[in-house]
Design a protein that fits this description.
heterodimer; A: mainly alpha; 76% helix; B: alpha/beta; 9 helices; globular; ABC_transporter-like_ATP-bd (chain B); antibiotic resistance (chain B); ATP binding (chain B)
């Protein structure tokens, strides 16, 4: 039975290679990356075998190790990964619960994360091979850790699949993701400003002291404690680690038996009155496409997530710079152009977000121009007030209204060139995107190299095309206010030209490549 | 070839309240009351119907033009099922498609005449969906031509698509829209004006039994309801040709009867339906013509009577599709494992 589960997992992994060549390249790169990471960490850990300070090594390992366990526990919960080995898929086969849970738990050993973890754990065994008993303890705790991490990720994956099963709650996980992003920012700031040289070791030592007595860090601390002569603590922590693994195993079994008899739940459907945006937009194909896009920007988490993230980005960029001592007046000029970059970029894969639903546009013979323009409307709805109000606020903080044309020009240039490039790339180069109804943080299997190219091209493209306006703007701020007006003129001019060109090329591509767009959506 | 004028037996087709603010309310049971087969300029060469006398209520009139060109309305075509004189609405010739090494469709030729209810049957993976996708302009063929009403779908896609209604299989809908919004969206994309779309949406919702679901998101619909709303979207622009891939899959029997009735009325007034299905009973009952596709090639086509001969359609189909495998060596199934 166990062998069959392992075989199934191997075959599931192997079948990814049957997808498009680009995806295979992506998977291979991912695997190579994992391998390199594993080998690198292994070498470091082997190196640590021959260095002195066992206390420092133990403390560092406990803190880092606790983060790893926490990662295995939280990652599936927050990002809602697609579970190929969901217990419910085996519900009809009548496999005894205990064997099913064992088989599924063991099958999670097949995969890149488990491989990397396994190699790293072997490294820790080498690190602590400073005596027979230490080595033995290190081996036992490594085995316990592997089991703990695998069970933790199984339990949290299933919990995520089980509790967050409805469409609406799946989208809700995105909000947790944003909250975490926002919370991480101050932590990173603290970490950046911390005087590691002076207090670093003390902090890590203190943290390790606490974490070592929690389920997260206990197993990591066992061999280290033994190597530093704290035998009593080592035994107690080993007991704790064993107990943790056992509890997780019980939780996993309980969850499997519960899931087998609980089919998916249905959410209460909500009623919407009227036609919404369709009433207020013009009753033409272009107006209807705009109304549809606006509706999606509000209802579909994949869109509103990216809109919510946009104001967070300048925060993340500006806070560290202000800590680094840059004057606030100059920093105040940054947010609007930064937000424009990301707003212009949100549409760069818009057609792929429709997934196969785009057939309706193709089958009804929608004109490319109507499609392109309609999809731009929400971004303009958000972008124009953002640039207008944002620039005013920025300039009032800066204190000199003479730079207003510059900031308007640079932001407009970035937004419009971004939208122009997106209009073309989303029609010509759609790449697999998060499917409708999936968590906005779940990426499609193996985002490939082509996707990375398109992303960086559209992202960098708008900034490159805005360099003239940006240069004039910088001259206006730092050298001579005379340059402010050319910044506005150049920005709006280049922006409009790019937008028109992008929409024109995008329209042609959309009309010519309708069937190919559908095919690529089907493959995605 | 010319379509015959409407016979007196046919109900007068109500005049389409073209661009008028107050359209006449129409009985909800008549689902495509405004079905108006209309000509496109590019098809006028093959179908010179516009100057026929407006017999039996068929009135020549303008339609909302796409590019300002006035278009005249053809009289409703008298439909007699086996009439070889009906104009060919859909002509498929030499259609081919392969995906890599796999040949999905290997040279299909078909002719579907106006006013026929054409069923395409075939085993799983026979190339039905591939064929229908190429007919509707959703999948580019490797070779071959598809003409709808004389318009080449792949040479002149915009004109051809205007007169085709499509229900694809296994493609998503814009399911974050409510049912009402999706209907409206489909109608407006097809170039209908605001008032017409609203009125037709209401009619379609009543006919398909979707009134209570119109204000819910399509994502929350059941499989059968999703199929029905997609079907409604396919016919909102009163196309000349309806191409339906598995229209009755997961639709409940009551709705299936309703839908069938709607389609039969549509066919009776000159529309053409091409559908694929696994249900032989249904095809035999509903369709007048059938084609059997196996491994990407047409093995038999013609009227139901021609194709099935002395047998039932199902028997004939199983025979053509490679014969029934006699279930030998399955004795273990008869001794139960407990």
């Amino acid at each position: 039975m166990v062998a069959q589960f392992l075989g199934l997992k191997v075959r599931l992994l192997a079948n990814f290679s049957r997808r498009s060549p680009w995806q295979v390249v992506g998977i291979v790169i991912g695997m190579l990356y994992g391998l390199a990471l594993a080998v690198g960490l292994f070498m470091v850990l082997v190196g640590l075998r021959f260095t002195g300070d066992a206390v420092a090594i133990r403390d560092g390992m406990v803190v880092a190790g606790s983060l790893v366990v926490l990662g295995f526990l939280l990652f599936p919960l927050v990002f809602g990964i697609d579970d190929t080995m969901d217990p419910r898929k085996f519900a009809t086969m009548g496999i005894p619960t205990q064997r099913l849970s064992l088989g599924l738990a063991l099958s999670s050993l097949v995969g890149v994360p488990a491989f990397v973890l396994g190699v790293v754990l072997l490294g820790t065994v080498v690190t602590w091979s400073r005596g027979v008993i230490e080595t033995l303890l290190a081996l036992i705790s490594a085995a316990l850790l592997l089991a703990t991490c695998m069970l933790a990720s199984r339990v949290s994956t299933s919990l995520a699949a089980f509790l967050l099963d409805t469409r609406r709650s799946r989208e809700f996980t995105g909000i947790i993701g944003v909250l975490i992003l926002v919370m991480i920012a101050p932590v990173v700031l603290l970490a950046l400003n911390f005087d590691w040289g002076r207090y670093g070791l003390d902090l890590i030592g203190g943290l390790a002291g606490i974490l070592g007595w929690t389920p997260l860090g206990a197993a990591w601390a066992v061999p280290g404690d033994a190597a530093t002569g704290l035998w009593g603590e080592a035994v107690l922590k080993l007991l704790m680690a064993t107990f943790t693994t056992y509890l997780l195993w019980l939780a996993w079994q309980g969850l499997v038996s519960r899931m087998l008899v609980t089919p998916g739940r249905e959410a209460q459907a909500r009623q919407y009155g009227g036609l919404g945006w369709f009433d207020s937009m013009p009753h033409t194909p272009m107006g209807a496409i705009a109304a549809r896009s606006l509706t999606y920007w509000r209802r579909d988490s994949r869109y509103w997530m990216s809109v919510i993230v946009i104001p967070v980005i300048p925060l993340i960029v500006i806070l560290p710079l202000s800590f680094a001592g840059l004057p606030v007046s100059y920093l105040a000029l940054l947010p609007v152009p930064l937000m424009s970059v990301f707003l212009g970029w949100t549409l760069h894969n818009d057609v792929a977000l429709d997934h196969t639903a785009v057939w309706l546009h193709v089958a009804s013979g929608t004109r490319g121009f109507e499609d392109r323009m309609g999809r731009l409307v929400p971004a303009l709805f958000v972008g124009i007030p953002m640039i207008a109000a944002g620039s005013a606020i920025s300039v009032s903080v800066y204190g000199d209204w003479a730079v207003m044309p510059s900031i308007l020009g640079v932001s407009t240039s970035i937004l419009l060139t971004g939208l122009g490039l997106s209009s073309y790339s989303s029609a010509r180069f759609p790449y697999p995107a998060t499917k409708p109804g999936d968590s906005p943080f779940s990426q499609p299997q193996a985002s490939d190299t082509a996707a990375a190219l398109i992303q960086s091209f559209t992202f960098a493209g708008s900034i490159l095309l805005s360099l003239p306006a940006l240069a004039c703007g910088l001259l206006g701020v730092f050298v001579d206010p005379v340059w402010n007006i050319p910044a506005l003129a150049l920005g709006v001019g280049i922006g409009l030209i790019t937008l028109v060109g992008g929409v024109w090329a995008g329209s042609l591509a959309f009309e010519r490549r309708g069937p190919e767009t559908i095919s690529s959506a089907i493959r995605a | 070839m010319e379509p015959e004028p409407v016979e007196a037996a046919h109900e007068p087709v109500p005049v389409e309240p073209d661009r008028e603010p107050e359209p006449e309310p129409e009985p909800a049971t008549l689902v495509l009351p405004e079905f108006v087969p209309f000509d496109d300029e590019s098809s006028a060469a093959s179908l010179e119907t516009t100057d026929l006398p407006p017999a039996a209520g068929a009135v020549a009139m303008k339609r909302p033009a796409f590019k300002g060109a006035p278009r005249k309305r053809a009289p409703v075509i008298a439909q007699t099922v086996h009439d070889p004189a009906s104009p060919v609405v859909l002509n498929i010739s030499g259609l081919q498609k392969s995906f890599g090494q796999t040949v999905a469709v290997s040279g299909i030729d078909l002719e579907v005449r106006a006013g026929s209810f054409f069923g395409i049957v075939g085993p799983n993976g026979a190339g039905k969906t591939t064929t229908l996708s190429m007919v509707t302009g959703l999948l580019r063929p490797d070779a071959g031509t598809v003409t709808v009403n004389g318009i080449d779908v792949w040479a002149n896609p915009f004109a051809a698509k205007r007169i085709i209604g499509v229900l694809p299989d296994r493609l998503r809908l814009f399911d974050r829209l409510t049912g009402a919004q999706l209907l409206y969206y489909s109608g407006v994309l097809r170039g209908l004006d605001d008032v017409t779309v609203r009125q037709r949406s209401a009619d379609l919702a009543t006919a398909f039994g979707l009134e209570d679901a119109l204000n819910r998101l399509v994502a929350d619909y059941s499989a059968g309801m999703t199929k029905k709303i997609a079907l409604a979207c396919a016919m909102i622009h009163s196309p000349r040709l309806l191409v339906l891939d598995e229209p009755f899959e997961s639709v409940d029997p009551v709705s299936a009867v309703n839908v069938t009735e709607i389609l039969q009325k549509y066919v009776a007034s000159g529309g053409t339906v091409v559908l694929s299905s696994h249900g032989m009973d249904l095809i035999q009952r509903v369709c007048d013509h059938v084609a059997i596709i196996v491994q990407g090639a047409v093995l038999a086509s013609g009227t139901i009577a021609e194709v099935r001969g002395e047998q039932t359609l199902e028997e004939r189909f199983v025979e053509l599709a490679g014969g029934r495998k006699v279930a030998e060596g399955m004795e273990w199934l008869h001794s139960f494992s407990d």
